[in-house]
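Suppose you are handed a protein chain with no further information: no name, no annotation, nothing but its sequence. What can you learn? This example shows the usual starting point.
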Amino acid sequence: MCFSGGRTACRKYRTRGAAHDPERIRAGKAGYRTRMTTEKEIELPAQHERNIFGDLDCHVKKIEKSLGIMVIGRDGQVRISGEEEDVNRAERLFSMLLALSERGNLITDQNIDYSLSLLKESREAEMVEIDKDLIIHTMSGRPVKPKTLGQKKYVDSIRSKMITFGIGPAGTGKTYLAMAMAIRAFRDEEVSRIIMTRPAIEAGEKLGFLPGDLQSKIDPYLRPLYDALYEIMGAENFMKNTEKGLIEVAPLAYMRGRTLDNAFIILDEAQNTTPSQMKMFLTRIGFGSKVVITGDRTQKDLPGGTTSGLDVAFRVLNKIDEIGFCELTSKDVVRHPLVQKIVEAYENYEKHENRAREEASRIPAPRVRNSRYSRR
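A reasonable first move is to predict its three-dimensional structure. Written in structure tokens, the prediction is:
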């Protein structure tokens, strides 16, 4: 990215709001103050401009609002104006987005939101390093990669640890990345088979007796695993390997009594296991195997009062070196941006509720005295 230098002008703006936003300038009754405004021009090749700016400039509008700057793109040049510190931050951001675009990535809202969050910590350069970690391509040719620092740590843990716990909210890619790593290991002949399992528990509903044979009864519970397999491996390859017994999808109850050697094993929805089920599963692991256990501790479907096996395992096993624990957060959500806001709202609500319960528990109960005995 080339720079044509910058020029500085002295302008007056309200003390609050973005320098270029007329609505913010008119808002409030605060006095004016003198602020130094800088302009910089950077080169942005036309073939990457639309990808970075987004449809109807949706990405650049978000950048302008977040950094308090003005961005104008024309003929392969982008002019950035605003306070010097904000302009410099925008310059680094566009440099990073251009590097991602040059690597063939489609710039999404998630990329912009996460890049802006890293920019606040001056860690935006790590986005390019994350993008270099290619796991596998789907059947449609789409590359599967970690998209956040949390996901990168999760993938690295799967590579280096025999057992990895991926714990985090919905939409953080726990199951999908684990599936991609399993298929990569199977393709490279690091393991001879893939085994996927999850507890067969309804999400708060009683479905009653389902029709059909055993496979038909358990398929609805295992559908999320099938979806990921079909997308990455393809339905034909999946069916072929399933018939050979190289890929197995089964409920957790069928793991008892088995020894799983030279396999990549994924336990999904582990928050719905009981402590005895979790212990049973962990003691099935044989030589040459790798295990990934995923779960969301905030979405349990166990009967009331039942302890989750995932919570117990986290307390019991977190000091064993060969076992990795990766806790993903709302920052690692890669679904629609609204999902991230929903997860954050629930996290804040739960923190408030927990704080209120802790404060209530500290209040001593009033002492009830019997007046007849107190006179004595």
